[in-house]
Amino acid sequence: MSVIKKLTKASHLIDMNDIIREGNPTLRAVAKEVSLPLSDEDIILGEKMMQFLKHSQDPVMAEKMGLRGGVGLAAPQLDISKRIIAVLVPNLEDEEGNPPAEAYSLQEIMYNPKIVSHSVQNAALSDGEGCLSVDRPVEGYVIRHSRVTVEYVDKNGEKQRIKLKGYNSIVVQHEIDHINGIMFYDRINEKEPFKVEDGLLLID
């Protein structure tokens, strides 16, 4: 059975065993464009990827399934070399612990996403980045664009264009890197991992 057939079976829930780790050549390949109109298989795969992210952020399901929390997942991380990513960025509680009005600041399955424009200013997460395909901590600032405009096709086959900044921008760039065979630590300055260039925006 092919990987995509296994993952898109109705009974299958994606878990950490389905996620390939660094060293696997699929993570270094440039993934293929998804053909349009979208196949049922590609639509289901996107939905399964989103379901994984929701499970990974749910403390009960995450513990039950042994999941690491994630805000993004790309098809190559499942050993499927296709240009599909899912992103799920929760809004945080306010200072008094009240839940946000909207659960997520970004919730989207993107087919063939591409960055069509970006800011001159760069940004990095102050705590660095992690990845479900990397089982070790890698310290350093991952230098990315602070703002990006992304075009993609949604699961209904509609073309979309969104502008992103801050954390959402970083998450989407991390996932788009995956479909281009780029790992987050490729963007860390090897000699000076915590070097702050002029104008670098550090995001908490």
What does this structure look like?
- This protein is α+β, with helices and mostly antiparallel strands.
- The model has no long low-confidence stretch (mean pLDDT about 95).
- A hairpin with a 5-residue loop joins β6 and β7 (about 160-165).
- About 35% of the residues are buried.
- The protein is built from four helices and eight strands; from the N terminus they run αααβββββββαβ.
- The protein has helices at about 5, 40-55, 60-65, 165-180; strands spanning about 70-75, 85-90, 105-120, 120-125, 145, 145-155, 160-165, 200-204.
- The chain has a five-stranded antiparallel sheet with strand order 1-2-3-6-7. A three-stranded mixed sheet has the order 5-4-8, with helices on one face.
- The radius of gyration is 17 Å and the shape is globular.
